Amino acid sequence: MNLASRLSLAGAAAPFALNLATLSAAQAQTDDYRALVCVYLHGGNDHGNSVLATDADSWSIYQSLRSAGADLTLPAPGESGGVIPINPASIQSGRSFAVHPLLSPVKTLFDQGNAAIVANVGPLVEPLSRTAYLNGSGLAPPKLFSHNDQTSVWQAFAPEGAVTGWGGRMGDLMASMNQSQSFTCISPAGNAVWISGRDTVPYQISVRGPTAIQGVYGGLNWPAPVSAIFENIVTANQSHNVFEQSLSAVTRSAIDAQQRLQGALLADNILPAVPVVPLTGTRNWLATQLRIVARIIAGRQALGMRRQVFLVTMAGFDTHDNQISRHTPLLQELAQGIEYFNTLMAHPAVDAAQEATLATASEFGRTMAINGDGTDHGWGSHHFVVGGAVRGGDIYGQFPCYESGGPDDVGSGRLLPNYSVDQYGATLARWFGVSDGMLDDIFPNLDNFSSLRDLGFIRS
Prior knowledge:
- By secondary structure, this protein is α/β, with parallel strands linked by helices.
- It has two domains: 31-209 and 273-449, CATH 3.40.720; 211-264, no CATH class.
- The chain is 35% helix and 15% strand.
- Strands 1, 5, 6, 7, 10, 11, 14, 15 and 16 form a nine-stranded mixed beta sheet that branches. It has a three-stranded antiparallel beta sheet with strand order 2-4-3.
């Protein structure tokens, strides 16, 4: 038994602080690097037109549900502009599958073994049957189908108001492996509970890099001597006032962090340019965020980093109306962004194809039933995991049946999740290096799914 395993066994009876210290000490003996990049799809991505079952029975149900009003169906495989068949390694009897035609780049990664699909993931407190949910005898997550609450439940396992998320709590456990602990959790997409830890504060950046305090190395274009004087003023620690002392210390720390990260960033002109989304003619915003992530990952050795968590986001997935015209360019941007991420990680200047994993998340899927020309808030959804460590080329989990009133339908084609967010996150966390003994601290419901704590889609 290795040292990390012995420490995790001892940890059950030890205080959290001792667990944290001993676990990090054990893992610090390694010199590997891992980065987890979460792509959060705000609004609730429509899984029903992203990954599809195309066997005769499934396709008939899909067409029936998605054409009761405006026609939201996609062309069949083999038709012009039709969905693209995929061949997962694991056979699901009688089923065949495809992805949206504009997810072709993801299909290519899937075929290469660098992308996997995790079917029907969503918040769960405990294993739950359709009958138990409908008659109220089972315990369901709070405030289902609410954007704000389910975003928080997905990211933090509690409704709106939660202050720490599972990405941030992973950062808490691993921060001591990093020389620059400030850069453990980073987001170019603003603040979010997912990336906030108990002790680890997210480092927010712009897509151009760390943001300087105006007047100190940027912002006001002052001459260097003037900037130096201003820096001395805002960081002077000569006051007896505790508040002023704290403010100057925080300001000094912010300036030092900005300078250190700026100095470690890979030069902007080395990586391939951000692509333009063909359907919109605009710069791919997801790819723009992933570019700064790649530039930071490339500087991992200069910063002394071994574990980093990143959050990037896309908006616009709340497709209550005009779904076909709105959802299509979003999927094109997502697929193009994922392909760009894969290209960046393999670039010689970044060289992190095996060390970085991208995983999608979204507060919920959408209903299979349509509301006219769109869809409403659902529950379970399918997600993509991409990277060199992924056991790709497969669909993980039993793909749901969309039949109205079937075992996976809790109303209007809302999917009862097959896998919990705890299981999805714990699988990623084990790859990230979190010991089995500490998973339950991060994922509060995981013990209820003890028969399957690792979904197997990534190499631990």
